[in-house]
Amino acid sequence: MTPSRFTTGVCVVAVLGCLLVASAPLVLGASAAFRGSVVASGLLGVVFAGYNAYSVRACGQPRLAAGVMTAIFGGWFVAAPLVYTVGSVLTAVVQTGGALTAAFGGYAAIEAVELLVRGTPMAENVPRPDND
Question: Structural domain tally of the chain?
Answer without folding.
Answer: 1
